[in-house]
Amino acid sequence: MAIKNLPVEECMIPGSAACPGCPATMALRIVFKALGKNTVMVVPACCTAVIESLYPNTSFDVPVMNIAFEAAAAGASGVEAALRQQGKGDTTVVAWAGDGGTYDIGIQALSGALERRTNFIYICYNNQIYSNTGIQRSGATPYGAWTTTTVGGKTEFRKEMGEIIQAHHIPYAAQACVSYPEDLYNKLKKAKDIKGPKYIEIMAPCPPGWRFGMEKTVDMGIMAVETGAWALYECENDVVTFNGKSKLILEEKIQRKSIEEWIKQQGRFSHLFKPKKDVKRIKTIEDHTDQIWERYRKKYL
Questions:
Q1: According to the model, what pLDDT value does residue 119 have?
Q2: How many CA atoms lie within 13 A of 85 on its CB side?
Q3: Which of 29, 57, 244, 248 could crosslink 12 through cysteines, CB 3.0-4.6 Å?
């Protein structure tokens, strides 16, 4: 699906309270175009709970249930069950949460919903921080990154949530990025037509949280993929297929770009370059990325 052929109808309407350059709103436009108006959103505490706008106004032209931080998947399970009892099984139920509400606070409810085989789509928009509450470290925050709770740089590597999800052996799981809208749209359309639990995680570079200019959101997502900091793939019934440039990196048809080129454009890593370059920690990030891709090759080639 080319961008010019995407549906014209908009369910992401004027009135958003998002920051300029917000990746979540970019992703939401594609989500709504792919899933259509017959969709119910379940949104926990996160940036999107603000982006929706303040009552009595909203920038979403679909029903939304806001719920506690840890309860997105549980709430969506209840909504799906209620709609099914009403004979409305054709309505798409979406849990839409950030990485804090997915990797950390919401992982228990998410795992339970996947285990119960809830017929819904769980979407994590991953900006690698708790952005809405002041840029704190999450389980998705990469090693070395500054946050207000890791002022010297995070000392742990991020969780591999994709592998945790795959361990549940659900019908469909995928990783996407706001910078590749056609890829995201196609994955959403595919997920919509599959019964059972589906999980899609979207890389969402955050200008205020990552400390880069708001006009560079798309560039940051592209660089995340080209450097191998983020992989585009989908897993259908335990069969994993890499997409786009991630597939070429996996098959070693192209070499991934140096991750230093990506992190040096983000203020959250500025302490690794001044007052002098921290060669050791930058190499640690590069080496860890190499290890991830070697693990991918052993598992999926």
A1: 98
A2: 6
A3: 29
Q: Could you tell me the pLDDT band of residue 153, with boundaries at 50, 70 and 90?
A: very high
- Helix and strand element counts for the chain (H, E): 11, 8
Write out pLDDT tens, residues 238-297. Answer: 999 999 999 999 999 999 999 999 999 999 999 999 999 999 999 999 999 999 999 999
Tell me how far apart the alpha carbons of residues 27 and 23 are, in angstroms, rounded to a whole number: 6
Order of all β-strands in the sheet with 198-203: 64-66, 39-43, 92-98, 121-126, 198-203, 172-177, 233-236, 239-242
What whole-number distance in Å separates Cα of residue 210 and Cα of residue 129?
Answer: 9
Per the prediction, the chain carries an average pLDDT of 96
SS3 92: strand
CATH code of the domain covering residue 195 = 3.40.50.970
Residue 256's domain comprises 3-300
Please, are residues 103 and 138 in contact by the beta-carbon 8 Å criterion?
yes
Helical pair 107-115 and 72-85, crossing angle rounded to 10 deg: 30
Contact criterion met (CB below 8 Å) for 30 and 188: yes
Total domains in the fold of the chain:
1
pLDDT > 70? residue 1:
no
Residue 254 exposure: Cα atoms within 13 Å on the Cβ side:
13
* The dihedral sign for the CA sequence 258, 262, 267, 269: negative
Residue 107: which of 122, 94, 121, 93 has the closest Cα?
122
Of 45-54, 94-103, 210-219, where does mean pLDDT reach its minimum?
45-54
Name the pLDDT band for 56 (thresholds 50, 70, 90).
confident
Amino acid at 101: G
